[in-house]
């Protein structure tokens, strides 16, 4: 247990304490600081006693910790005090007080009372850069080095309002001024400093490499973001058509859904009983009397997005409340019926995808045809996840028919899959890889971090899910000859 005491010039060892106190006060007086406060703290741990001599100068705390294994504690206290004052006096004389802001721990080894060895450690707490403790001022020597300009901050694709140009302009801007011409031997004149943009071979090679990647990406993927019709077709059909085709297909899908809703509404109204005409007259009169005149202005400003049309379909609340892809994926990561926890994890995944830098596409593993550029995905995390899932979603599934290949073997037959089934299998692959990944920390956000990193790896072509998809499609091509095979089953005779 730690105990503290304050130094005073009186007591059993008043001469040592008084001389140490006066010496430190003299140093502070020369530095034009407030009078110091002295404390001594003892802490016994593991059979050893640690004496800490604390000095509070100008609101800053210094601690000289002294470990002593001997039996004479008075000598240990005096040694700790002398060690602290000697270091403080030496630092004041050498004008090294300015290094307090960068110093963390200083170990001072000394020998006290013959064979006893004492180690004192100086710890500096809250030593800010504004604290300048100097006994004498030293004139600053002018530097002969040329000023160095800081490199501009890097703007990521997700921060740019427009798409990044395929080839940057290396020419001088309107505000740049040409530098002095080199000398005859090819060297630069003295006193010149390097500008913001350097023309070193390393920078040129890096720029050419980035230009090559940008050109390859612009040829494979679109430079413009998806339209609203393209996103609607992607979420409902799993593919990205051209903008013209997307408009036509989106209108057809909307008309088809409206027809289904009308049929469901007609079927519901046909089962309801008709009311007598008196009740209809009463309701009409009641509605006419309660309705405001046509010239009256509405009370409120109205609804921002408008109210849904009546009659409501039977599945209005169940399937059309949330995004179709997010609703399916959220329920796939749900465990033990905890939907709120799954929604929280999905929100963390979307946040990580939104704040992550733009992905780097891989030409070896192309994404869904019609995918926008990488700088557009971080702006829409739902589109980010949908592109990753639909790009690795398998087109088929291998089913085995027992005892159909002869010799007790199963006959493998490929079958096509629907959209929801394809997305389910693809996300299960991503989920299995994310669960087997090691965590980089601790806390409730580790699952969301692993899942988001795996989705980014899928888009960048670094995930092992691509090999699994390729192996499945290769197996489907191998077994495509089994499609349409007539299976002859042996008749089983029952025993009588």
TrEMBL record:
<dbReference type="GO" id="GO:1990904">
    <property type="term" value="C:ribonucleoprotein complex"/>
</dbReference>
<comment type="similarity">
    <text>Belongs to the universal ribosomal protein uS7 family.</text>
</comment>
<feature type="domain" description="Small ribosomal subunit protein uS7">
    <location>
        <begin position="322"/>
        <end position="477"/>
    </location>
</feature>
<feature type="compositionally biased region" description="Basic and acidic residues">
    <location>
        <begin position="157"/>
        <end position="172"/>
    </location>
</feature>
<dbReference type="GO" id="GO:0005840">
    <property type="term" value="C:ribosome"/>
</dbReference>
<feature type="region of interest" description="Disordered">
    <location>
        <begin position="258"/>
        <end position="309"/>
    </location>
</feature>
<dbReference type="InterPro" id="IPR036823">
    <property type="entry name" value="Ribosomal_uS7_dom_sf"/>
</dbReference>
<feature type="compositionally biased region" description="Acidic residues">
    <location>
        <begin position="258"/>
        <end position="267"/>
    </location>
</feature>
<dbReference type="InterPro" id="IPR023798">
    <property type="entry name" value="Ribosomal_uS7_dom"/>
</dbReference>
<keyword id="KW-0689">Ribosomal protein</keyword>
<feature type="region of interest" description="Disordered">
    <location>
        <begin position="136"/>
        <end position="207"/>
    </location>
</feature>
<feature type="compositionally biased region" description="Polar residues">
    <location>
        <begin position="190"/>
        <end position="207"/>
    </location>
</feature>
<protein>
    <recommendedName>
        <fullName>Small ribosomal subunit protein uS7 domain-containing protein</fullName>
    </recommendedName>
</protein>
<keyword id="KW-0687">Ribonucleoprotein</keyword>
<dbReference type="Pfam" id="PF00177">
    <property type="entry name" value="Ribosomal_S7"/>
</dbReference>
């Amino acid at each position: 247990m730690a105990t503290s005491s304050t130094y005073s010039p009186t007591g059993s060892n008043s001469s040592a304490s008084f001389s140490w106190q006066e010496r430190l006060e003299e140093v502070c007086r020369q530095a034009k600081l407030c009078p110091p406060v002295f404390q001594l703290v003892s802490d016994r741990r593991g059979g050893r006693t640690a004496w800490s001599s604390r000095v509070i100068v100008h609101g800053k705390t210094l601690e000289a910790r002294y470990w002593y294994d001997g039996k004479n504690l008075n000598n240990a206290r005096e040694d700790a005090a002398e060690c602290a004052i000697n270091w403080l006096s030496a630092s004041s004389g050498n004008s090294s007080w300015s290094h307090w802001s960068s110093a963390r721990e200083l170990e001072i080894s000394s020998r006290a009372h013959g064979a006893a060895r004492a180690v004192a450690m100086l710890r500096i707490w809250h030593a800010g850069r504004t604290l300048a403790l100097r006994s004498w001022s030293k004139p600053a020597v002018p530097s002969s080095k040329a000023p160095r300009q800081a490199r501009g901050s890097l703007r990521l694709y997700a921060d740019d309002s427009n798409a990044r140009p395929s080839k940057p302009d290396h020419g001088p801007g309107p505000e740049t001024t040409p530098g002095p011409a080199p000398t005859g031997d090819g060297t630069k004149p003295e006193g010149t400093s390097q500008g913001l943009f350097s023309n070193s071979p390393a920078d040129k090679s890096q720029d050419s490499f980035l230009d090559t990647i940008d050109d390859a990406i612009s040829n494979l993927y679109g430079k413009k973001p998806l339209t609203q019709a393209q996103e609607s077709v992607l979420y409902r059909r799993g593919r990205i058509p051209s903008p013209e085709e997307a408009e036509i297909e989106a209108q057809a899908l909307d008309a088809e859904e409206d027809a289904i809703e009308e049929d469901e509404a007609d079927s519901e109204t046909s089962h309801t009983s008709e009311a007598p005409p008196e009740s209809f007259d009463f309701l009409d009169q009641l509605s006419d009397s309660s309705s405001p005149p046509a010239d009256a202005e509405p009370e409120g400003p109205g609804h921002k997005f408008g109210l849904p049309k009546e009659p409501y379909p039977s599945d209005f609340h169940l399937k059309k409340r949330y995004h179709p892809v997010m609703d399916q994926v959220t329920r796939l990561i749900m465990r033990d019926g905890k939907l709120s926890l799954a929604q929280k994890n999905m929100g963390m995944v979307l946040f990580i995808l939104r704040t992550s830098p733009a992905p780097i596409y891989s030409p070896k593993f192309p994404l869904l045809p019609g995918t926008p550029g990488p700088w557009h995905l971080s702006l829409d995390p739902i589109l980010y996840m949908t592109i990753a899932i639909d790009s690795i979603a398998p087109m088929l599934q291998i089913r085995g028919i027992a005892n159909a290949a002869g010799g007790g073997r199963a006959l493998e037959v490929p079958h096509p899959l629907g959209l929801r089934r394809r997305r389910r299998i693809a996300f299960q692959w991503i989920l299995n890889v994310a669960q087997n990944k090691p965590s980089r920390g601790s806390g409730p956000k580790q699952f969301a971090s692993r899942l988001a990193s795996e989705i980014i790896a899928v888009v960048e072509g670094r995930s092992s899910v691509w090999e699994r998809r390729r192996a499945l499609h290769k197996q489907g091509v191998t077994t495509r000859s089994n499609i349409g095979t007539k299976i002859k089953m042996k008749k089983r005779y029952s025993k009588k």
